[in-house]
Amino acid sequence: MANIENSQQALFEPSKSQFHLDPGTFTFHPDFLGAQLASHLFETLSDQLQWEQSTIRMFGKTIQIPRLQVWMGDKEAHYRYSGSDFEPAPWHEQIYQLKTKISARTGHVFNSVLCNLYRDENDSVAWHADDEPELGPTPVIASYSLGASRPFELQLKDKEGRLRRKPVKIDLPHDSLLVMHEGIQTDWQHRIAKLKRPTAPRINLTFRHILSNKRG
Ligand SMILES: O=C(O)CCC(=O)C(=O)O
Ligand SMILES: [Mn+2]
Description:
By secondary structure, this protein is an alpha+beta fold. It has a single domain (34-214), classed as Alpha-ketoglutarate-dependent dioxygenase AlkB-like (Jelly Rolls, Sandwich). Helices cover 18% and strands 38% of the residues. It is built from four helices and 17 strands. The protein has helices at 35-48, 93-106, 159-164, 184-187, and strands at residues 3-5, 11-13, 18-20, 25-29, 55-58, 61-64, 68-73, 79-81, 84-86, 112-118, 125-128, 141-147, 150-156, 168-172, 176-180, 188-192, 202-208. The strands form four sheets. Strands 2-3-4-15-12-17-10-7 form an eight-stranded antiparallel β-sheet. Strands 1-14-13-16-11 form a five-stranded antiparallel β-sheet. It has a two-stranded antiparallel sheet with strand order 5-6. The longest helix is centred in the first third of the chain and has 14 residues, at 35-48. The radius of gyration is 17 Å and the shape is globular. The model is unreliable at 6-15 (pLDDT under 50). 2-oxoglutaric acid (AKG) binds next to strand 10, strand 16 and strand 17.
């Protein structure tokens, strides 16, 4: 079960593995592939993906982001981020199989995935929402985790609401799938914070659907 911390408003319904954040809904699927398959996939992806540390421009400086990434998917699934256009790497066969299984379970179709490798406690992703125009107005994002469990935090985008409510924290364990449904990217931001205690590596795969006609 998802270990969901806090939130005055968050309501977890174990029977449906759904929780509501008001506004917005998540679906949580623990043990998605089975422990053995998942551990094998973690080793395979750690070794075989062409992990890269991207750079972004911030305050006039070029800085390296604190994690390794691979952008992967169908040929037309280009992604614009921080002023750069990323061409997808071809599908890794086992990620493609995972995508097929996720679509069968959730009823949602994806044409791309952002793979993140958090090497240790110093790797992180800052507050953001996956709300780029090429994802369309109501993106559904499926987030699959492998390796060390890390807390995934959410806070409302709206400053007033944020002051009234503490961030929501969900532990994302090995082999878990979290589906962020329509509206979550509109109203909430999320992050993986650095940790003070040592932690082992974690891989996260966020499956997305890029609308090709939104390319600029
Ligand atoms: O690592 C995670 O759980 C989240 C990654 C994320 O937010 C992203 O890739 O946009
Ligand atoms: Mn994200």
